Amino acid sequence: MSFANYDDPFMQVQADVLSTLDITRPLFTSYLRIRSLASSPSSPELAQARSELETNLQDLSTDLQDLVESVRAAEKDPFRYGLDVEEVGRRRRLVEEVGGEIEDMREELVKVVAGAHVQGGGMGLPSPSAFDAESPHEDGYAAFEQQRQVEIMHEQDEALDGVFKTVGNLREQAHVMGRELEEQGEMLDEVDTLTDRLGGKLQGGMKKIKTIIRRNEDTMSSCCIGVLIFVLILLLILAIAL
After folding, report:
1. How far is Cα of residue 178 from the mean position of the Cα atoms in its chain?
2. Against a cut of 0.85, is the pTM above it?
3. Are 127 and 181 in contact (CB under 8 A)?
4. Tell me, what DSSP letter sits at residue 41?
5. Region 189-196: what's the mean pLDDT?
6. Can you tell me the distance from the alpha carbon of 16 to that of 20, in angstroms, rounded to the nearest whole number?
7. Helix, strand, coil abundance in the chain, percent, nearest 5
């Protein structure tokens, strides 16, 4: 049974992570819906949903790193922090599950809009080339906007790469902690087995000691009785002689 309580820093950070995760999941669902309906990767609504989701995922990654460091410290000496092996294992599984969910969301963020959706009944939109002669300024503005959106997407991709590396490192650390915990569990099993053997040997030794003590007590009693008999006989002989 774990001795952890609500004053444990891990429990406090865990509560923050789970709270942020509960907020992030609806944002992720909303992002997927907007992306499925968006006609272009540069859609303002899609960019806003993506930005909000990235902010929450960044906060989750930071808090998750704190949890990983806490679990690693606890695995080295669980009893020092008032924890047992089962509680440390539960914390490690929590870190792995949250890290996996964050990574799944990150993978969805790198996907782009599959294609444009055509709006309207049966009439398509006119070709952009039809406006070339009438609106040269609009074309220049459109080109500028497109270039700006490309730059924004490039910056977001770079930020995502950094987050992906962080999440990957977290998962690797979680696997390492899992292996260390398994090794510690095997060591504890060996200690328990050795303790049982020593306990059996100690009980056998105590029985032998008790047997020897009882035998010595019987021998001393016999000697005392013999001495008393000899003294009585000697006194009788002296009394008769006198």
Report:
1. 9
2. no
3. no
4. T
5. 82
6. 6
7. 85, 0, 15
